[in-house]
């Protein structure tokens, strides 16, 4: 009996020790992995939010799953499964994601994806010189992937949408004049063009237009991981309120923002009627206004 009591006390003591404390594990995909600037930002956001909440929630670890990027629909399927491959994914918000997963309505890129430049064929530049309004832009053919958040928005707004079945084929289709332009985030378009310069020397960035399309970029959490959702919400809130997120944004994308010279462009606003009522548009400090912001934090 005495030996049993000693064993019981030993077990209780060890279970209460830090070695046995709960560890929150985030499972995410390679689209969040630090293999380029854009994906490094996603990874750092997750890691910083977890680090900031250690005093309240304890230890954590991040496990990256899979061998490469995964289509968004498959990522959502895994997010919804019990013990699926992912329990956290960062993507532009879409109604299906908000309905089925747990959205954390804090725009982790502070609306940077709201601003879109147009990748086009050099032979089309004269056409864009005549575009000054949404009405004159609508008839032109826009190339999109159906999985993108912009697809549903632009369809609803009456754009002439042409579907591309993969990310890479978008550029070859544009080169063959299958459509007139691809709208890309201002932090995406320069690297995309640079990496394809040899393959598609006729592709250029249209120099005079910027589309403004509200596109919040959220962290989505599995409905089977409510504690992770609570922890990330707390961490992201601290990052936003303390200016950490804004500083991180400029560290990663400041060079692209300077190169964009967005203030010299004609602006075309596009409504996003797919946004939910929970979108924090009233929290002005959650969003970066590139028309009225300095290029330093």
Strand content: 15-25%
Outline the low-pLDDT stretches. Answer: 1-20, 32-36
Instruction: Give the class from helix and strand content and strand pairing.
Output: alpha/beta
The coarse silhouette is globular
Secondary-structure element order, as H and E?
A: HEHHEHEHEEHHEHEHEHEEEHHE
Q: What features would you describe in this structure?
A:
With 297 residues, this protein is an alpha/beta fold. It has a domain at 18-108 and 217-254: D-Maltodextrin-Binding Protein, domain 2. Helices cover 39% and strands 20% of the residues. The chain contains 12 helices and 12 strands. It has helices at 2-16, 37-52, 54-57, 72-80, 95-100, 125-128, 134-137, 149-156, 167-175, 189-195, 226-241, 244-260; strands at residues 23-29, 59-65, 88-92, 102-104, 115-121, 141-145, 160-164, 181-185, 203-205, 209-212, 217-221, 266-269. Strands 5, 8, 9, 10 and 12 form a 5-stranded mixed β-sheet that branches. Strands 3-11-4 form a 3-stranded antiparallel β-sheet, with helices on both faces. β6 (141-145), α8 (149-156) and β7 (160-164) form a beta-alpha-beta unit. α2 (37-52) packs across α11 and α2 (37-52) runs antiparallel to α12 (244-260). The protein is globular and about 65 Å long. 33% of the residues are buried.
List key phrases describing it.
297 residues; alpha/beta; 12 helices; D-Maltodextrin-Binding Protein, domain 2; 5-stranded mixed sheet; globular; 3-stranded antiparallel sheet
């Amino acid at each position: 009996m005495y030996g049993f009591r000693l064993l019981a006390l030993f077990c209780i003591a060890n279970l209460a020790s830090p070695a046995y404390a709960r560890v929150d594990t985030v499972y995410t995909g390679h689209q969040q992995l630090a293999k380029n600037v854009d994906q490094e930002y996603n990874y750092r956001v997750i890691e910083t939010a977890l680090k900031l909440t250690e005093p309240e929630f304890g230890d954590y670890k991040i496990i990256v799953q899979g061998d490469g990027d995964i289509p968004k629909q498959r990522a959502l399927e895994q997010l919804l499964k019990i013990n699926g491959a992912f329990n956290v994914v960062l993507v532009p918000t879409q109604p299906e994601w908000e309905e089925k997963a747990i959205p954390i309505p804090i725009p982790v890129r502070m609306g940077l994806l709201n601003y879109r430049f147009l990748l086009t064929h050099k032979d089309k530049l004269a056409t864009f010189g005549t575009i000054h309004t949404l009405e004159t832009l609508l008839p032109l053919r826009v190339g999109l992937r159906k999985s993108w958040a912009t697809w549903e928005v632009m369809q609803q707004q009456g754009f002439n949408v042409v579907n591309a079945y993969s990310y890479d084929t978008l550029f070859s289709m544009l080169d063959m004049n299958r459509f007139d332009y691809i709208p890309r985030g201002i932090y995406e378009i320069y690297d995309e063009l640079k990496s394809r310069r040899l393959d598609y020397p006729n592709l250029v960035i249209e120099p005079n237009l910027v589309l403004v399309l509200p596109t919040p970029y959220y962290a989505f959490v599995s409905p089977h991981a409510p504690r992770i959702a609570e922890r990330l919400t707390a961490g992201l809130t601290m990052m936003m309120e303390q200016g950490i997120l804004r500083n991180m944004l400029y560290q990663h994308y400041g060079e692209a923002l300077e190169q964009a010279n967005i203030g010299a462009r004609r602006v075309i606003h596009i409504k996003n009627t797919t946004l939910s009522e929970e979108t924090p548009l009233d929290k002005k400090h959650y969003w970066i206004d590139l028309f009225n912001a300095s290029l330093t934090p």
